[in-house]
């Protein structure tokens, strides 16, 4: 979760000596001119984020936006990696109507991107996860709920009973913790279990996180599915593929493993009967220096050979990023921080606006690349910047 967005300059005229427009300057001007902003008029995720940062407490902003390691390299790489891919558009195709509906684990949704599991939404807005769930329901978008939510999984399910929801958790020690959560999720109507597999322990965070968030924020946390937080490390460093087999034996729900970055692990996941592989580096919050998720995606898609669905998250900030990930083989693309920024900026309506912005950008990108429906999107439509 990045603290500073990468900055890029606009294009100045070669002949007129026009000053290039800096993104940060633009966003500062945007805020000055939109102090009483209407969230429905915001036109980009970047604008949503800038508004959110002016509403979030320093502790909350660091908690949501921080990466791991001293340099937060993977955090930055996730966004930058998307900028290395270029489109090769097709022309003279009928794209007057674009259809973005798709199916994911046999559930039909209206968007090929969904909301990733992120923790503790009440520190962004008092309405917390139910507001995010309601926003997803309005656009018939897939929502994945975090084990470490501010509200209980039952409260989230009740807030949007007809929406498609998955539940994310971990293999805890003892396993009974996981089993209890899975059974609660089944009863509440969640459609799949997402197991995060890249978290044997919590790595070091940057200095600013350690001395601001850990000392002033985490001691006050309340988890809707557990209660008050404490200093206990809940994660289990002894988890293996055998635990995935155990999980398959205690639930009939489809199982997705989240946090896979190599083709070798993707093949093993298929051998253990998972229904989905989620290519992810935990939003740059685990191993700093890990490959960007979108760069890991193509090799994993190739290795899986269609035996299960493949998803990706990390660094998606524009509908064109969604289009690139779909072209590289993802069945579904997930966004983590943007919904939090939307929640902070305007509650449920802010989250809906984030989804609408990405939807409209994706629709525009589909039209400009000659794609009337998702099946028209192919790997030949994107290429690395080297043009090889």
From TrEMBL:
List the Pfam families hit by this protein, alphabetically: FMN_dh
Spell out the CDD domains in the cross-references.
Answer: alpha_hydroxyacid_oxid_FMN (cd02809)
InterPro entries the UniProt entry points to: Aldolase_TIM, Alpha-hydoxy_acid_DH_FMN, FMN-dep_DH, FMN_HAD, FMN_hydac_DH_AS
Q: Does the keyword Oxidoreductase apply?
A: yes
Keyword Flavoprotein listed: yes
- Entry's Gene Ontology cellular component terms: peroxisome
The protein in question is named: (S)-2-hydroxy-acid oxidase
Source organism per entry reads Owenia fusiformis (Polychaete worm)
């Amino acid at each position: 979760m990045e603290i500073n967005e990468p900055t890029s300059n606009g294009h100045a005229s070669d002949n007129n000596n026009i000053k290039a427009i800096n993104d940060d300057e633009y966003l500062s001007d945007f805020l000055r001119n939109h102090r009483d902003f209407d969230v429905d008029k915001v036109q980009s995720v970047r604008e949503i984020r800038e508004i959110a940062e002016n509403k979030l407490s320093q502790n909350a902003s660091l908690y949501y936006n921080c990466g791991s390691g001293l340099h937060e390299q993977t955090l930055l790489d996730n966004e930058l990696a998307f900028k290395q891919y270029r489109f090769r558009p097709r022309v003279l195709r009928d794209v007057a109507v674009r259809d973005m509906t798709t199916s994911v684990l046999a559930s039909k949704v209206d968007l090929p991107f969904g909301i990733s599991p992120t923790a503790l939404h009440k520190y962004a807005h008092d309405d917390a996860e139910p507001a995010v769930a309601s926003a997803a329901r309005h656009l018939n978008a897939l929502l994945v709920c975090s084990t470490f939510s501010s509200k209980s999984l039952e409260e989230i399910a009740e807030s949007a009973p007809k929406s498609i929801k998955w539940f994310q958790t971990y293999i805890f020690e003892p396993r009974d913790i996981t089993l209890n959560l899975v059974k609660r999720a089944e009863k509440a109507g969640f459609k799949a279990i997402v197991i995060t597999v890249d978290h044997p322990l919590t790595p070091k965070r940057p200095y600013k996180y350690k001395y601001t968030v850990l000392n002033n924020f985490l001691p006050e946390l309340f988890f809707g599915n557990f209660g008050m937080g404490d200093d206990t490390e809940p994660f289990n460093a002894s988890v293996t593929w055998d635990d995935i087999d155990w999980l398959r034996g205690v639930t009939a729900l489809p199982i997705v493993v989240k946090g896979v970055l190599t083709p070798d692990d993707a093949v093993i996941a298929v051998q253990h009967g998972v229904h989905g592989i989620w290519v992810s580096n935990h939003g740059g919050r685990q191993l700093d220096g890990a490959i960007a998720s979108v760069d890991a995606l193509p090799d994993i898609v190739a290795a899986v050979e269609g035996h299960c669905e493949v998803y990706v998250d990390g660094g998606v900030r524009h509908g064109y990023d969604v289009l690139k990930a779909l072209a590289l083989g993802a069945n579904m693309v997930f966004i983590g921080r943007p919904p939090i920024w939307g929640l902070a900026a305007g509650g449920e309506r802010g989250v809906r606006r984030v989804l609408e912005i990405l939807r409209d950008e994706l629709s525009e990108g589909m039209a400009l690349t000659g794609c009337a429906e998702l099946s028209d999107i192919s790997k030949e439509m994107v290429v690395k910047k080297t043009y090889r």
